[in-house]
Design a protein that fits this description.
- Helix content is 36%, strand content 31%.
- By secondary structure, it is of the alpha/beta class.
- A six-stranded mixed sheet has the order 1-6-5-4-3-2.
- The chain is globular, with a radius of gyration of 19 Å.
């Protein structure tokens, strides 16, 4: 799996919450599919799973055409915690039992976090038999220093726009 994923096309800052990121990813689904890589098809957002009468919602659900399997993506607005894998693992089991067809391969899970401790993630994944991955996402990459000084400031742009309105 790729790591990190670059979400700078969303135009969100590091203060963005999980739902804001999810909503923006769906709005920009074409760019998100390109960032994920070849073969992904969007299935849905906040996909309802009814398990034993309790309702659960998958953040994002995809199908990978070449791998012939569903891909569950769970977004976390903060740092990776091992307990996040329990939730994702539960979703994979539910999709395998309720959604996938007999000819489909087992569902893959991708946990996207704002940050992670690589060693903690490796320990948490080490004994898990399900196909799970943990990756970071980057919302906004800062401009290189040489470009920062050559671009106009917000104030300069606003002043120039005021000149056009007058």
């Amino acid at each position: 799996m790729k790591d990190p994923y670059r979400f700078d096309f969303l135009g969100l800052t590091d203060e963005a919450q999980e739902r804001e990121i999810e909503k923006a990813l769906v709005k920009h689904v074409t760019e998100f599919l390109l960032e994920l890589g070849a073969g992904f098809a969007f299935v849905g957002r906040q996909v309802l799973l009814d398990v034993g009468g309790d309702e659960f919602y998958i953040d994002l659900l995809f199908y990978h055409l070449k791998l012939r399997c569903y891909v569950v993506i769970e977004l976390k607005g903060g740092k990776f915690k091992p307990e996040h894998l329990g939730q994702l693992s539960f979703y994979l089991t539910a999709v395998d039992e309720q959604v996938k067809h007999a000819q489909d391969n087992p569902t893959i899970g991708l946990l996207l976090c704002r940050s992670k401790n690589k060693v903690v993630a490796e320990y948490a994944l080490r004994t898990n038999a399900q196909p799970l991955g943990v990756a970071e996402y980057k919302l906004l990459e800062s401009l290189p220093a040489e470009l920062q000084t050559s671009l106009p400031s917000i104030e300069q742009i606003e002043n120039e726009l005021k000149g056009f309105q007058a």
